[in-house]
Predict the structure of ATP-binding cassette domain-containing protein.
Amino acid sequence: QTTIEVAGLRKRFGQTMALDGMSFTVEPGQVTGFVGPNGAGKSTTMRVILGLDSADEGTALVGGRPYKSLRAPLHHVGALLDAGALQPSRTARNHLLWLAHFQGLGATRVDEVIEQVGLRSAARRKAGGFSLGMRQRLGIAAALLGDPPVLMLDEPVNGLDPEGIVWMRGFLRSLAAQGRAVLVSSHLMSELEDTAGHLVVVGRGRVVADTSVADLIAAS
Ligand code: ADP
Ligand code: ADP
């Protein structure tokens, strides 16, 4: 089954055509790399999929439905859009407990996701003092709370140290190996070529190449 379907999205901000016919699909069981230069429309696409921005034209479906018509949407899609969006004065664990509360989830689930992202030793520290890499892990833990089959991560590798990058790549692959659909953006092809099985390359608000990595390697 296809889990994200974006078709013919157009979105204008004033004079800027942010999306100009963006179309692609994201399948379960592999990482789809969403690659293109800054300003290509990656974040806007993700925001439209999540219903945070509206498109002027086109459709964005998750599991066959618009995000806004999903019941329990956080159990369908997890997203990391802005690693800065945390509560600096709360501990990482309390931040997650607070988010879990609104999804009807408790401490057991919170401790599971803390373990999954490798934050156990930092879980009782204030998130305000976290490095970017730890913020990314915390953001991913939050996205995983509802155990969603679809994940969207905007530039999760950005600003990580080499050890963090290696961890993130392995972690993204493991999420896909669990059968999830994982859409990951980056402005650098090199960040995703070893991780993604499917590449959607974008520029100026539209797809310029859409290929499996196996086909790409066979052709080169
Ligand atoms: P990317 O994520 O690939 O870097 P974005 O989706 O953030 O690209 O941006 C696409 C284009 O739309 C850019 O030119 C950006 O400046 C513009 N843009 C995005 N959001 C807004 C906004 N809220 N207001 C005005 N312009 C925006
Ligand atoms: P990214 O590089 O991940 O696309 P940005 O820093 O471009 O992130 O955008 C961060 C936020 O600012 C987003 O909500 C985006 O919609 C908004 N934004 C981006 N470009 C503009 C712009 N030119 N004018 C107003 N808001 C913008």
